[in-house]
């Protein structure tokens, strides 16, 4: 038997060595990984967690903004995000394409519903460019979006686009900041929009107004869900799932009243349409608390679309200073009364007033010869204020302006508040400040200062935030309360100022007749300020018209400031007309809405009056007396041709009702009449009645019951309650009083 000879197989040996070495290296690697738990300097457990651990964000809801009654002003609402699938790989059936087949047609249709830039003619081109763009490597993306233009799409618009049945156009549910009232305190509320973050997520951020100022409180904090999956992203059984809940944004409750704000917006829009002014501002406030109930300006914008024309992106009520014009005379008058230097019945020469080499003039350039200070105020005389400054004293006057809060911020809870500037370096500046030229203020400063006049001397800081509340717990995070800013003048001074302000509406020469309300008695001051040029000086025939007023006079419930800049007035109209077309409907409707049914809102007995025009004065006189009112017939009786106050409305029992008739006028007994009632009688009777002093009537130069047959002056002397206890000392003569004043 032949023996087989052993042959050494080098190939097999080398294969054994090679695979044996690989096995040894692999075994060594496994042992090393088991021992150290690291690979290439990285923790394997961490890498596994990164691959299989997932995290999903829970978006926090942005807080809502409410008015003071709990009605929504701003909230998040369901909307849609537009997506276009542009890659052919999305289509498996050519008969049913799932990508954009015709970019040009798609762009043309979409341009009718979304706007990628301001120039309409560029919309189609911009959308087409987005639909056909390529990635950096030259490949088509799977899908594209359209930035802010493709977000926040309403259900209505989404439905219209869907009806076009465009291949590749999809919609994803989204949230949009929604402002249900449209143009509504837009510069106060501001707006918020979704912005893309670096990680390609989107966050709603405030860009203006309260949305910006309180963005942190409104935004809240996003939560998250953490969990583990397998390689195919399926949730692993028994894996731990951790949830960090979202902290929703806080809700903000404003002092704004939606109903009053709506009254204001409607009136402003109507006047803007009718007079096409350069700009307008208006504020309504509660003088008892300082709460701002309404605030707006024109031009304005819709916060949903951010569309506006010739508009400033700032809140002019807070951030822009103005020369206030004659509304400032209110506080010059208050300073004079409070320093006991107000001489209502002393006379001065109107027309011109010289300050060194400068001459200031009254608004009619020539004045009205020698008139009383009371008439000068009613006529809105600049020279009357100049003479008053001498009586008050410059240092004392500026001290009162400081007490009223001019020249410094009010502290309202809004950003970027301006302080204004009180000019006092030169004598002419100190004089012009008395009637509102040169020195600057903000509308909100005028509102704050007017609270002192309306609130018996107590000045209240304005504010717009009532509460900030955590919606998940109901916990009050911030609770703003009324803040008293001091007492610039006494209660008695404030009451006298209100009486005199009311006379600017009722007096024969009053400049505020356009602001009379039939059902409520208004007190206020008109303003006509020349508009300064940037280069210095003033624009010819260009004015800012305004009114700062309150109602009802005896116990004001609302104060309101309105300004209209450069309106296109109709022939024969003065600047007060467009201003009054905002003030009157808003004040009237707001007082009725607040159930302010009388001239004094205190809980007292009321009596209703009607429109008595055409009825018998004698019969109405008996009816009113039986109802507890005091009828005063102005004339010889018969048919009533006019009355004050107008009806129908409710009055406090004991109030006067003036009934105008034809015929001779018999003088009533004025004893204990107020200045306002004397002025009403004077206006309706058209008699020369000279009023001396303040307070209530103590005596009259012509006996009650006398039939007035000529134009001889009738002197009615008033005293304050304090003066009634002091023996009267008569002045030597009117000439001496005038001489003292003119020094």
TrEMBL record:
Q: Which UniProt keywords apply?
A: Membrane, Transmembrane, Transmembrane helix
Q: In which pathway does it act?
A: Cell wall biogenesis; peptidoglycan biosynthesis
Q: What is its EC number?
A: 3.4.16.4
Q: Main EC class of this protein?
A: hydrolase
Principal place of residence: membrane
Reactions that this protein is recorded to catalyse: Preferential cleavage: (Ac)2-L-Lys-D-Ala-|-D-Ala. Also transpeptidation of peptidyl-alanyl moieties that are N-acyl substituents of D-alanine
Any stretches that span the bilayer, and where are they?
Answer: 12-31
At the top level of its lineage, which domain of life is listed?
A: Bacteria
Which InterPro entries does the record cross-reference, listed alphabetically?
Answer: Beta-lactam/transpept, Beta-lactam/transpept-like, PASTA_dom, PBP_dimer, PBP_dimer_sf, PCN-bd_Tpept
Its localization reads: Membrane
Q: Does the keyword RNA-binding apply?
A: no
> Domain named PASTA: which ranges?
603-663, 664-720
- Membrane among keywords: yes
Matching Pfam families: PASTA, PBP_dimer, Transpeptidase
Alphabetical list of PANTHER family matching this protein:
PENICILLIN-BINDING PROTEIN 2B (PTHR30627:SF26), PEPTIDOGLYCAN D,D-TRANSPEPTIDASE (PTHR30627)
Which protein family is named in the record?
Answer: Belongs to the transpeptidase family.
Q: In its UniProt entry, what is this protein called?
A: serine-type D-Ala-D-Ala carboxypeptidase
């Amino acid at each position: 038997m032949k023996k087989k000879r052993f042959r050494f197989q080098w190939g097999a040996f080398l294969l054994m060595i090679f695979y044996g070495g690989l096995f040894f290296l692999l075994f060594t690697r496994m042992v090393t990984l088991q021992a150290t738990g690291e690979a290439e300097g990285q923790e394997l457990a961490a890498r596994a967690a990164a691959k299989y651990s997932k995290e999903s964000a829970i978006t926090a809801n942005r807080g809502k903004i409410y008015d003071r009654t709990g009605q929504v002003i701003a909230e998040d609402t369901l909307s849609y995000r537009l997506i276009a699938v542009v890659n052919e790989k999305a289509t498996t059936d050519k008969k049913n394409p799932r990508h954009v087949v015709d970019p040009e047609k798609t762009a043309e249709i979409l341009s009718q519903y979304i706007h990628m830039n301001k120039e309409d003619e560029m919309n189609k081109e911009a959308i087409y460019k987005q639909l056909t763009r390529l990635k950096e490597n030259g490949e088509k993306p799977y899908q594209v979006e359209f930035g802010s233009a493709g977000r926040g799409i309403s259900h209505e618009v989404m439905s219209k686009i869907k009806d076009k049945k465009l291949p590749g156009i999809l919609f994803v549910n989204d949230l949009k900041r929604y402002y249900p009232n449209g143009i509504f305190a837009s510069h106060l509320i501001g707006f918020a929009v979704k912005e893309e973050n670096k990680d390609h997520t989107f966050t709603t951020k405030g860009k203006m107004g309260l949305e910006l100022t309180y963005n942190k409180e409104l935004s809240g904090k996003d939560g998250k869900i953490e969990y583990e999956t397998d390689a195919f992203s399926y949730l692993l059984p028994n894996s731990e799932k951790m949830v960090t809940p979202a902290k929703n944004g806080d809700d903000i409750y404003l002092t704004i009243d939606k109903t009053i704000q709506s009254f204001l917006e409607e009136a402003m829009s109507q006047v803007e349409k009718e007079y096409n002014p350069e700009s307008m501002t208006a504020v309504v406030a509660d003088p008892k608390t300082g709460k701002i109930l309404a605030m707006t300006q024109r031009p304005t914008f819709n916060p949903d679309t951010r569309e506006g024309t010739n508009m400033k992106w700032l809140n002019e009520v807070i951030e822009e200073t103005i020369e206030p014009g004659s509304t400032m005379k209110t506080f010059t008058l208050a300073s004079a009364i409070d320093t006991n230097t107000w001489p209502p019945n002393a006379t001065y020469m109107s027309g011109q007033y010289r300050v060194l080499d400068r001459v200031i003039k009254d608004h009619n350039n020539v004045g009205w010869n020698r008139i009383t200070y009371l008439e000068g105020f009613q006529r809105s005389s600049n020279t009357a204020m100049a003479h008053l400054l001498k009586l008050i004293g410059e240092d004392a006057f500026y001290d009162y302006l400081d007490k009223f809060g001019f020249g410094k911020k009010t502290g309202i809870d809004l950003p970027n508040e301006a302080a204004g500037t009180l000019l006092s370096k030169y004598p002419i500046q100190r004089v012009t400040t008395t009637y509102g030229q040169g020195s600057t203020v903000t509308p909100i400063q005028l509102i704050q200062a007017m609270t002192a006049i309306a609130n018996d001397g107590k000045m209240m800081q304005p504010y717009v935030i009532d509460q900030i509340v955590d919606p998940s717990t109901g916990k009050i995070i911030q609770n703003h309360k009324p803040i008293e800013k001091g007492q610039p003048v006494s209660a008695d001074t404030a009451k006298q100022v209100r009486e005199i302000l009311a006379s600017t509406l009722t007096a024969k020469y009053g400049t505020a007749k356009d602001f009379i309300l039939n059902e409520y008695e208004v007190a206020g001051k008109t303003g006509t300020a020349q508009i300064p040029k940037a280069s210095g000086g003033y624009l010819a025939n260009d004015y800012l018209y305004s009114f700062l007023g309150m109602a009802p006079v005896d116990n004001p419930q609302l104060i309101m400031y309105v300004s209209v800049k450069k309106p296109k007035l109709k022939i024969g109209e003065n600047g007060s007309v467009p201003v009054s077309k905002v003030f009157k409907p808003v004040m009237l409707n707001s007082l009725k809405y607040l159930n302010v049914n009388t001239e004094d809102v205190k809980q007292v007995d009321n009596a209703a009056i009607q429109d008595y025009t055409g009825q018998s004065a004698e019969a109405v006189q008996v009816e009113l007396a039986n109802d507890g009112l005091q009828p005063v017939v102005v004339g010889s009786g018969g048919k009533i041709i006019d009355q004050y106050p107008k009806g129908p409305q409710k009055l406090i029992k004991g109030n006067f009702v003036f009934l105008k008739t034809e015929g001779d006028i018999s003088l009533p007994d004025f004893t204990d009449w107020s200045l306002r009632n004397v002025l009403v009688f004077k206006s309706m009777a058209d008699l020369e009645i000279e009023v001396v002093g303040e307070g209530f009537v103590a005596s009259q130069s012509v006996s009650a019951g006398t039939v007035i047959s000529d134009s001889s002056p009738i002197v009615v002397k008033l005293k304050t309650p304090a003066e009634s206890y002091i023996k009267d000392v008569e002045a030597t003569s009117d000439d001496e009083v005038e001489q003292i004043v003119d020094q």
